[in-house]
Request: fold
Amino acid sequence: MKLPTSANFFKQIPEATESERIETLFESLGFRVERIVSLGQASADGFWYDQPEDEWVMVLEGRARLEIAEPSKIVELAAGDWLSLPANCRHRVTWTDPERPTVWLAVHGNR
Reply:
């Protein structure tokens, strides 16, 4: 039997000075919840995420910019903004705030 767990999302935010930090906070049948911390990181030139599952992301702190491949679109995200990315929606992070951490909540799930 699994026991309930709890924590504070904003406690112990990992440093992201060297690279973006991704932590799986919860995983169950068909979905995964992650905390992502960025500090000036962006996708490598020419790299596109093309994930087999749906993804929903929200910026809780900081700012970021994403590029969607089709239809071609740039999306600016600030605290409170969220974006739904269907499976196989090619996208990339083109910019995150280099001055302060960008803290994301990401939920990945299968249809």
Summary: The first strand starts at residue 21 and ends at 28.
